[in-house]
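Open question from group meeting: does this chain pack into something compact, or does most of it stay loose? Before anyone orders reagents, we agreed to write out a predicted structure and look at it together. Recording both the input and the output here so the notebook holds the full record.
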Amino acid sequence: MRKNIAVVFGGKSCENEISIITGVMAVNLLDPERYAAFPVYLSQAGDFYTGAALSDASSFRREGYLQKGKKALFCGQNLCTVHKNKIKTVAKIDCVLNCCHGMGGEDGALSSLLDLNGIPNASPDAAPSALFMDKTLTKLVAKALGVKTAPYFRIGEEEYRKRGAFALRVIEERLGYPVIVKPARQGSSIGITVAEDRARLVAAIQAGFAYDDLLIAEKYFERRREINCACYMSGDKYVVSPCEEPKTEHKFLTFGDKYLGGGKEHASQFPADLPRVTAETVQSITRMLYRRLRLRGVVRADFLVVGKDVYFNEMNTVPGSLAWYLFCDKLSDFKEMLTRLIEQGICDHMAKSGKKMLKNCGVLSSPALTGKNRG
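Structure tokens returned:
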């Protein structure tokens, strides 16, 4: 019997459209002999929709595309539609593949929803997803594990309003110019600016707060190479990709470099031309972070290489196109990879659901609550 797989894409994020591309690709590549695929679109307003028409990316290019699907929700392990206050079960879901990039999906929110409903998840759990969505928390995790990152300074919006001059002075003293300013919980290079002096730094901070109330300022390395490496679990084996070096003519890899020039995978050197020791360092850190944070599914780690130094930059727990191009020569190979991801998610869920839970421990009927010991 085929398993029912919900592929969730979209999200309450600036990366909604990128996620549509990832999700629709995954829906159409799942092995039809093994799985019945159900597209589930999460709108930027936070509503779920499902329907066969949402398996076609062209549906999203037209106005009123949401009318092609029905409002949906997860009720227990069931995917349901809602119409005129009536709930109808579409299918009992055996596993969910998370293809949401950014907030509302990649940040652990969707993973938490699935956990509450008892649905297996082929993507990372809530805790590591939330940690890696926040670039400031990513720094703390890396430091705890002894992984080198670029020097940085955290900037909260409310704190900046009260002590902006102090923040600017600390950034200048600790990091110097140029400095790169990023929204802490956005992806795809959204809201990022490189500042060469105080006036540009102030402008970069003000621009960044339009996207997030928490920013991170990092030392900008002028001579740096951006290197990516991905990993997933297949059975008891960690599968680590070769290193990739995306190409750009800008000061950092922009949104346009990634998605508007034919796709990131077409604008990179793969494998990256790196000294063997550097490539092995990148792969080793990627594997270690995957293992120590108990990640699941496919993730992509991004690094900065400056001379002989390797700096961990960030972890994408739902990478664009699920980083298939770092593992597969053709899409038919990706179909097999998706099967491994889904089966791993189901196996992990079965192992976790077998653990004991203390029930009816007697606290509510204790004398302290019933008042039986009161005179």
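Observations to bring back to the group:
The chain has ten helices and 17 strands.
The first strand starts at residue 3 and ends at 10.
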